[in-house]
């Protein structure tokens, strides 16, 4: 088949050239059409349900909403895990489905179950299935600045002018508004006036609801006409509401305005946003899952440019997070590495081939292979991102190998000046090397294909790498057997492709040294073995991590304040911290801090939690060389604010971390059980044991208790007398404390909630237990009673958060591990816990966390590596038809790994998933070099020469291709290893491993392999 | 030189301070620390409540009609001040005519009965008539006198009678604020026509929860402050009626008026900013500023007053300043929070 392909290419050269042009054009089109993102989509098929139940405690929501809904959802097939987190007034349930499950099907299933049970939820439950987004979907954020607008006005602008327009941008799943005040139309009843009028709260509520509607009647035929009739009652203005007649009797009519104040108020706030310490309003654009982030950002920016002139004068849409910046930086880093790699490889080709035409011809394979790769990426819906483009960079050094072999052989054939047609000579030359070229390519591909079987985060991250390398290698193979011979037929004019002078010198030196070593191999072999042993020791000293942290360019500082802090105080502390940071760390351009929950409930933080988003100045303006040093300066400032916990993260890192485990830390110990108090006691004990286990750092027990409630318990004997129910009591109190939405005022596109409440009315809103006790409650019959007279008030402790997994409550202890291997740590910890804690019946413990990922990744790699080696052995055996020869080549592997380990050790990089992938890549390249060397020995062996002479000459012959293969691969990766920009962190360990491994494996291929071959063949000869 | 009052305060609060959490100001880093002087107060204002301008039960002069009302026209506004003898209402109808006839009849009967009584008095003394006959004569006389007297008192209030005799105009029996009777009150055989409330009897009443009644000191309207004079001696369910002093003229309050007023309560308390109070170890606390340290002090919140809380404490706080900013962080510190 290969021969037919070659024959066709050389006989249909014009067609091939035309096809080349078409492929070129298609490739360029594919490149520009590829979705661009910073990361591949690492999220599983995930559906999130967010339900808000105003005023309810976590325990109540759990029993009335979370638990019944979970019971429904657990019946959905194909689900991997069901998690929930219930806090005050909100519950968030997340379903992860099995890989490959269609997201639309999954959402439909969840929606169906949700709507089936919705009727059973408490009144006022709002929300539903969250937008179809991923943790990486938060891709654009801006605050609305205008000093002349109030916070209510800013929020109004965001909600009713900007948000609806942004939602029309293709790819935008939702626009989340945060901060400011949501305007309401508020009726603040005067209990004394209500009492005088003998009107209860329910009567007011009913009057508003029954009046504020337009009813449908039907059609009436009037003569030959048909007239549509409706009843009209909707309020159009605040005055309409004020004029609402609540009661009419012989004593006259009572209007709503007679019973209290009607004013514009605001909804109870669950969160706030500050910019540089001053409160503001913010919008967060969430992209649809699988959308092209770059396009969405572009669309959003265009829409904002359209909106901006229509906004009030002085309004500034202050963009403080633009994912495109990260995409540009990350993709820029990789693209730069790609360009540098191409240039370096071309220079090396020119140097080693010593012929510009040949070098040009080989170099042509790089852009064509890259474009073909992009074309295949486009067809397989692979986005251009840090990982996929990284794969192309890794492949650059290997892409040229097959073309080098073909071109070198073509030139050699042409140099022989045989009396045959030129095209035929090129065909023969190409045909001669077609099989080895295919085998070489197959080895590299086979090395990477098993990576496609990786699961979890590592699978999602490295599948694109493996795929692009496979695409690039296949493209390179196709090009080397089609386009390269054709172009060679036009370009190569019988040049002399003798090795350049420096190669010849190198060959001489190499040959001489090899002769010496063949004569006295002991010290070299011994030295090599010692080196391997030393590298094994170094391996144990390497730091281990699951995945290097990607520098996203921005910093998020997470603050945690005392659990029961009020929103106002929390925001005040944010102001203090923001101002101190801005003053003392000039590298920070602006700080946008978000406290509490967002509008949609996608990130329902407590009032004591703040994410401080820091936009940084360009690095040129920094006083520091690295981001770590800058973080150190920020840390110093934060440490001057005692009583506030803080932590560092980044926008994507934060979301990925939450997505993966729901908790961060190398090891998480989950305790499952029913009783919150028992869980809290157990986690405290486990945290103590964990802290005492060697290697544990940053031990943290989740706070599940700690919420303090004021229980208002209706006195049953009085309740009966007054006809007061618990629900009516709750309604009455809610109106006083938080406000009850009873209807809405619709004015065009603006819907303003109508609230019965006292938000912002400090004179009437209870602000202490005593005041709540003394608050007057309008009873159903219109009489009033003091709350403290009809109900008793008491403080109670309760859970602040209830986490559940697959329908079971759990609490978690997390820890990081340092100075020892995690698996050993977990085993010791497991033993310690088993010995020291006696679990009550029905309680179980599970171990997870990032350790879980590491274990899964290690297990996967432990399966992949033997599989790769086995496949290589099969290929080697089929190539050499000899197991000893195959093993001889495999012997190169430990020495290749040795270089990788030393490379990691010297560079200070950790052993991580990318480093492991680097080791796998190394297997292929190292084996390929061995194949090049050994196959040549075998060819020469067929000519029955003297073994020593054969080995020396053969090795010298192969010096150039082996050095070329190794150096192109190495130099192709140098830009990646040396890159410093955001995005380089993940590929860097991989590049370092491959470069280090190639250095040692090249030495062993050049010396150890000929020596061992000599030894082996000598033994056979004897 | 020892500052004696301060020394005594510190001495008194020493046992509490020993239990209390203490923080050094120097340990609070860059936290914005602002203090507010504790302000001692003797009373505070509670949330508004419904009040009624009225007289206590039995304190108003009630004018009853001895006959059924057919048509009644008040000649002064409800609640208006009227002087004694001032014409206040007109009654019309056949019952009025009957009433006049009844007066005349009663008068004739009385006259007759008196005549008989006078004539028989000497006969009785002479024992010319029997004991039982004399008793009948006396009884008839007394009944006729009472019957006429009953009608006669009402007759005294009649300022004018129409020529036809079916309409009378009545005078006010006493000075006071006139309060019309209600339809129900006018429906009996001897209906209530009006009440006349003396200025000293006009008060503001509030129904106050029994538990708060003892500390209620005054009621405030936009125009005046009215001291609470006394509390009702029986409760109406959960409430008891509190009565103010008599309403002075300048208060612009009208009898029967229902209004929303601000009650004032008496208590020995302190005023501190709302943001200075926090809950720690299951008690409300404030951080007292004492030189270079902050000491936690349990307090009880009584009420809120604008941006302040009215608090009480077991110990005197008047000499202290309380921490009024960064209290959330200070609480975090007390909880052991802080750091990375």
UniProtKB/TrEMBL annotation, chain A:
Does Nucleotide-binding count among this protein's keywords? no
Membrane topology listed for this record: Multi-pass membrane protein
- Annotated coiled-coil positions are none
Q: Which UniProt keywords apply?
A: Cell membrane, Membrane, Transmembrane, Transmembrane helix, Transport
Where does it localize?
Cell membrane
Transmembrane domains' residue ranges: 12-32, 330-353, 360-380, 386-411, 432-453, 465-492, 513-539, 861-880, 887-911, 917-937, 958-978, 990-1014
Principal localization reads: membrane
Similarity annotation: Belongs to the resistance-nodulation-cell division (RND) (TC 2.A.6) family.
The protein's name is: Cation efflux system protein
Q: Which organism is it from?
A: Lacimicrobium alkaliphilum
Automatic annotation (TrEMBL), chain B:
Q: Which UniProt keywords apply?
A: Signal, Transport
The organism's superkingdom is given as Bacteria
Report if keyword Signal is assigned: yes
User: What residue range is the signal peptide?
Assistant: 1-20
Q: Is-annotated flag, keyword Signal?
A: yes
Entry-linked PANTHER family: CATION EFFLUX SYSTEM PROTEIN CUSB, SLR6042 PROTEIN
What protein am I looking at?
RND efflux pump membrane fusion protein barrel-sandwich domain-containing protein
Q: Which organism is it from?
A: Lacimicrobium alkaliphilum
């Amino acid at each position: 088949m290969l021969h037919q392909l070659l024959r066709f290419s050389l006989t249909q050269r014009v067609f091939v050239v035309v096809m080349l042009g078409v492929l070129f054009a298609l490739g360029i089109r594919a490149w520009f059409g590829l979705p661009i993102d910073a990361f591949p989509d690492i999220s599983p098929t995930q559906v999130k349900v967010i339900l808000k139940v105003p005023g309810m405690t976590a325990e109540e929501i759990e029993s009335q909403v979370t638990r019944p809904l979970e019971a429904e959802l657990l019946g959905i097939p194909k689900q991997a895990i069901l998690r929930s987190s219930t806090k005050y007034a909100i519950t968030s349930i997340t379903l992860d489905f099995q890989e490959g499950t269609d997201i639309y099907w999954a959402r439909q299933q969840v929606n169906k179950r949700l709507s089936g049970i919705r009727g059973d939820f408490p009144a006022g439950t709002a929300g539903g299935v969250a937008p179809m987004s991923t943790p990486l979907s938060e891709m654009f954020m801006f605050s609305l600045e205008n000093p002349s607008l109030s916070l209510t006005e800013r929020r109004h602008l965001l909600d009713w002018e900007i948000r609806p327009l942004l939602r029309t941008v293709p790819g935008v799943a939702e626009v989340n508004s945060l901060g400011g005040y949501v305007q309401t139309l508020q009726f603040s009843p005067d209990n004394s006036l209500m009492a005088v009028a003998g009107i209860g709260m329910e009567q007011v509520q009913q009057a508003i609801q029954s009046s504020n509607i337009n009813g449908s009647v039907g059609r009436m035929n009037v003569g030959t006409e048909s007239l549509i009739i409706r009843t009209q009652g909707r309020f159009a203005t605040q005055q309409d509401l004020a004029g609402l007649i609540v009661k009419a009797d012989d004593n006259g009519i009572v209007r709503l305005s007679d019973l209290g104040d009607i004013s514009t108020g605001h909804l109870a706030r669950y969160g706030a946003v500050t910019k540089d310490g001053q409160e503001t309003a913010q919008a967060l654009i969430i992209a649809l899952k699988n959308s092209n982030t770059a396009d969405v950002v572009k669309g959003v920016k265009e829409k904002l440019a359209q909106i901006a002139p229509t906004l009030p004068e002085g309004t500034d849409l202050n963009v403080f997070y633009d994912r495109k910046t990260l995409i540009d930086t990350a993709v820029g880093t990789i693209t730069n590495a790609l360009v540098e790699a191409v240039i370096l490889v071309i220079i090396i080709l020119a140097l080693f081939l010593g012929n510009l035409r040949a070098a040009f011809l080989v170099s042509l394979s790089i852009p064509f292979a890259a474009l073909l790769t992009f074309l295949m990426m486009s067809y397989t819906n692979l986005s251009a991102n840090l990982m996929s483009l990284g794969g192309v960079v890794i492949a650059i050094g290997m892409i040229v190998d097959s073309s080098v072999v073909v071109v070198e052989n073509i030139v050699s054939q042409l140099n022989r000046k045989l009396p045959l047609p030129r095209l035929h000579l090129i065909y023969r030359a190409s045909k001669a090397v077609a099989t080895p070229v295919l085998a070489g390519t197959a080895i590299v591909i086979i090395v990477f294909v098993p990576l496609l079987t990786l699961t979890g985060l590592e699978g999602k991250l490295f599948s694109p790498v493996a795929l692009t390398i496979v695409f690039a290698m296949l493209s390179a193979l196709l090009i080397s057997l089609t386009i390269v011979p054709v172009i060679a037929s036009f370009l190569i004019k019988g040049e002399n492709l003798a090795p350049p002078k420096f190669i010849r010198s190198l060959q001489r030196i190499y040959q001489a040294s090899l002769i010496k070593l063949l004569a006295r191999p002991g010290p070299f072999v011994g030295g090599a073995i010692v080196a391997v042993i030393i590298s094994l020791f170094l391996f144990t000293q390497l730091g281990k991590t699951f995945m290097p942290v990607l520098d996203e360019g921005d910093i998020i500082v997470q603050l945690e304040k005392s659990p029961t802090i009020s929103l106002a105080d929390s925001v005040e502390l944010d102001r203090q911290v923001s101002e101190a940071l801005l003053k003392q760390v000039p590298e920070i351009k602006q700080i946008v801090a978000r406290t509490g929950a967002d509008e949609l409930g996608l990130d329902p933080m407590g009032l004591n939690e703040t994410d401080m988003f820091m936009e940084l100045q360009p690095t040129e303006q920094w006083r520091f060389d690295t981001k770590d040093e800058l973080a150190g300066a920020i840390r110093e400032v934060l440490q001057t604010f005692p009583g506030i916990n803080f932590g560092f993260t980044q926008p994507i890192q934060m979301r990925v971390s939450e997505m993966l485990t729901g908790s961060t830390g190398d090891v998480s110990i989950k305790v499952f059980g029913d009783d919150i108090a028992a869980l809290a006691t157990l986690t405290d004990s486990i945290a103590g044991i964990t802290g005492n286990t060697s290697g544990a750092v940053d031990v943290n027990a989740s706070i599940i208790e700690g919420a303090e409630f004021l229980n208002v318990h209706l006195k049953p004997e009085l309740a009966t007398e007054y006809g007061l129910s618990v629900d009516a009591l709750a309604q009455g109190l809610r109106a006083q404390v938080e406000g009850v939405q009873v209807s809405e005022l619709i004015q065009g596109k603006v819907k303003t909630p109508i609230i019965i409440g006292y938000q912002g009315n400090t004179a009437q809103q209870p602000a202490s237990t005593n005041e709540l006790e003394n608050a007057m409650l309008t009873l159903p019959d219109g009489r009033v009673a003091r709350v403290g007279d009809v109900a008793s008030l008491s403080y109670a402790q309760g859970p602040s958060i209830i986490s559940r997994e697959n329908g079971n409550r759990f609490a978690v202890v997390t820890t990081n591990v340092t100075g020892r291997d995690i698996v050993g740590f977990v085993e010791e910890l497991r033993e310690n816990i088993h010995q020291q804690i006696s679990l009550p019946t029905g309680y179980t413990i599970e171990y997870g966390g990032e350790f879980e990922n590491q274990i899964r990744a290690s297990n996967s790699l432990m399966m992949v590596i033997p599989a790769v080696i086995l496949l290589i052995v099969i290929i080697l055996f089929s190539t050499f038809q000899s197991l000893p020869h195959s093993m001889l080549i495999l012997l190169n592997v430990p020495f290749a790994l040795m270089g990788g380990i030393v490379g990691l050790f010297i560079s200070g990089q950790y052993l991580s998933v990318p480093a492991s992938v680097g080791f796998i890549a190394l297997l292929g390249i190292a084996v390929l070099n061995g194949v090049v060397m050994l196959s040549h020995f075998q060819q020469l062996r067929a000519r029955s020469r003297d073994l020593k002479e054969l080995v020396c000459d053969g090795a010298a012959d192969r010096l150039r291709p082996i050095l070329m293969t190794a150096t192109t691969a190495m130099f192709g990766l140098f830009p990646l290893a040396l890159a410093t920009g955001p995005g380089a962190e993940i590929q860097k360990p991989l590049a370092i491993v491959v470069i280090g491994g190639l250095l040692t494996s090249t030495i062993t291929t050049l010396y150890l392999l000929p020596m061992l071959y000599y030894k082996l063949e000598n033994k056979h000869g004897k | 030189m020892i500052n004696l009052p301060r020394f005594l305060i510190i001495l008194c609060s020493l046992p509490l301070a020993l239990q209390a959490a203490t923080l050094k100001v120097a340990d609070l880093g860059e936290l914005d620390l602002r203090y507010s002087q504790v302000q001692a107060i003797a009373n505070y204002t509670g949330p508004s409540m419904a009040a009624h301008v009225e007289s206590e039960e039995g304190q108003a002069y009630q004018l009853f009609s001895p006959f059924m009302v057919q048509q009644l026209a008040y000649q002064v506004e409800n609640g208006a001040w009227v002087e004694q003898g001032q014409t206040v209402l007109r009654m019309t109808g056949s019952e009025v005519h009957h009433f006049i006839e009844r007066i005349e009849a009663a008068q004739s009967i009385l006259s007759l009965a008196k005549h008989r009584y006078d004539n028989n008095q000497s006969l009785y003394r002479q024992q010319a008539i029997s004991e039982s006959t004399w008793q009948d004569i006396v009884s008839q006389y007394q009944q006729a006198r009472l019957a006429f007297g009953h009608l006669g008192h009402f007759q005294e209030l009649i300022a004018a009678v129409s020529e036809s005799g079916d309409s009378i105009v009545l005078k006010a029996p006493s000075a006071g604020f006139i309060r019309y009777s209600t339809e129900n009150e006018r429906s009996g055989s001897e209906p209530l026509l009006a009440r006349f409330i003396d200025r000293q009897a006009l008060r503001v009443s509030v129904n106050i929860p029994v538990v708060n009644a003892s500390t209620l000191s005054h009621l405030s309207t936009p125009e005046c402050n009215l001291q609470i004079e006394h509390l009702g001696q029986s409760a109406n369910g959960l409430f008891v009626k509190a009565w103010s002093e008599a309403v002075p003229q300048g208060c612009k309050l009208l009898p029967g008026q229902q209004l929303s007023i601000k009650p004032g309560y008496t208590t020995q308390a302190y005023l501190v900013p709302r943001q200075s109070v926090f809950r720690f170890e299951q008690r409300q606390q404030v951080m007292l500023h004492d030189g270079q340290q902050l000491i936690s002090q349990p307090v009880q919140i009584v009420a809120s007053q604008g941006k302040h809380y009215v608090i009480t404490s077991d110990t005197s706080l008047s000499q202290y300043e309380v921490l009024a900013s960064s209290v959330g962080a200070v609480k975090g510190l007390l909880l052991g929070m802080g750091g990375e």
